[in-house]
Amino acid sequence: VLLVESGGGLVQPGGSLRLSCAVSGFTFSSAHMRWVRQAPGKEREQVVYIDSDGTTVYAPSVKGRFTASRDNAQNTVYLQMNSLKPEDTAVYYCNKWGTDYWGQGTQVTVSS
């Protein structure tokens, strides 16, 4: 099983980033996935849950700004992040829900 995140970086407040998580080693089309973030000194926070048919559940802190989607043909889940705030700074991980399968994470830094 492999999950590989990409797309992080440094962005100014109000900017946008699109994260990707490419997966292999399991049947992606039937897998429920989630994006989780961890800021320095804080506990991990679930950002969004996306189930196998694309239904999403967002954390209140990102609702209306972030959009998760998936491409089952590409075995990839995405996180479009708009109107970024400094408090969104964290390492972002994708995870196969209900398992201990995690990617290595991608750093998102929102700063002027």
The counted number of beta strands is 10
Number of helices: 0
Q: Please, what is the average pLDDT?
A: 97
End-to-end gap: 37 Å
- In which range does the helix fraction lie? under 10%
> In which order are the strands of the major sheet placed?
2-10-9-4-5-6
* Element order: H for helix, E for strand: EEEEEEEEEE
Could you give a short account of the major beta sheet?
6 strands, mixed
Q: Structural class of the secondary elements?
A: mainly beta
Rg over alpha carbons:
13 Å
- Shape field: globular
Q: What portion of residues belong to β-strands?
A: over 45%
Q: Which stretches of 5+ consecutive residues score pLDDT under 50?
A: none
Structure description:
With 112 residues, the chain is mostly beta strands. It has no helices and 10 strands. The protein has strands at 2-6, 9-11, 17-24, 33-38, 45-50, 56-58, 66-71, 76-81, 90-96, 106-110. Strands 2-10-9-4-5-6 form a 6-stranded mixed β-sheet, with no helix packed on it. A 4-stranded antiparallel β-sheet has the order 1-3-8-7, with no helix packed on it. The protein is globular, with a radius of gyration of 13 Å.
Keywords, separated by commas or semicolons:
mainly beta, 112 residues, 4-stranded antiparallel sheet, 6-stranded mixed sheet, 0% helix
